[in-house]
Model the fold of this input.
Amino acid sequence: MVSGGSIRQTVDELERGAVVTDRSVFTDDEWKGLTEAPLRMTLALVTLGQHSPISVVKEAAASARATTHSTERGPADDLIREIAREAESREARHDVKAHLGQTPQEIVDHALADLAPAARALDKLSTDEAAEVRAWLMDIARAVAAAAKSTTPEEQDLITKIASVFGASAG
Done:
């Protein structure tokens, strides 16, 4: 639920003519990158870990929860909800054939490279909006890594790489 202060802030911004960022400011590639980023990060983290089937389910569930969790942090709340709705509607399955014959490291490297359009899209946002979207994406990565028993050093290294792609703190 949105607090009264957040509603007041939004009303004040609209009264001042503040622009509400939505899908329309992004190219199709940038929007696809933003909406696929949660799945790409999840794929990379799940691929990297040594898991039981139950761990994979826990990580997938953590990804879904973190992706759809309303941030209520600031100016990009509506944009994040829009990204999350579209991310949620995409097929959660990836094309297995695309990864046949690849090593886990190759899958991780491709997933990281696939985050580049989303990172570029953040350049179109205000500083505050970009920071909020970055924090949301990093929350997803940390939630996935922590969903199994603990975050391994390899997963933490990957979180650091994801943070680097987005210009965020790995913290």
In short: Confidence is low (pLDDT under 50) at residues 1-17, 92-96. The two ends are 27 Å apart (CA to CA). Residues 145 and 155 are 6 Å apart (CA to CA).
